[in-house]
Amino acid sequence: MRRLLVVLLGFVGVTAVGGAVAMAFGALPGAWLDGIPLVDSWLLPGLVLGLGFGAGSLITALRIGQRWASAAAAALGPGWWSGSGSRSRTCPSSPGSSRSTGSSGRR
Predict the structure, then answer these.
(1) pTM for this structure?
(2) Mean pLDDT of the 42-66 span
(3) What is the SS3 string spanning the chain?
């Protein structure tokens, strides 16, 4: 069970860091941020993703034998779920999105 947790945390950590780098270099359309208050670029969400989930998951995976690591792994779980829920509400091309888009990607 411990190995599975390390593999899952490592996978999430690596993909979160990759997503954060993509956000920092503008790989996502800025139009997706139009309806979100206080955020006008992908830099802040990228930092949260990379530092919070990416680094947090990788550090937890590397230190899984320590006392605090189980609590850290349990704390990361709700964040993963809330992040995927917010993406499905804000990004028009996300699976499960309630927004309808035409062939050009505009509403």
Answers:
(1) 0.66
(2) 88
(3) CHHHHHHHHHHHHHHHHHHHHHHHCCCCCHHHHCCCCCCCCCHHHHHHHHHHHHHHHHHHHHCCCCHHHHHHHHHHHHHHHHHHHHHHHHCCCCCCCCCCCCCCCCC
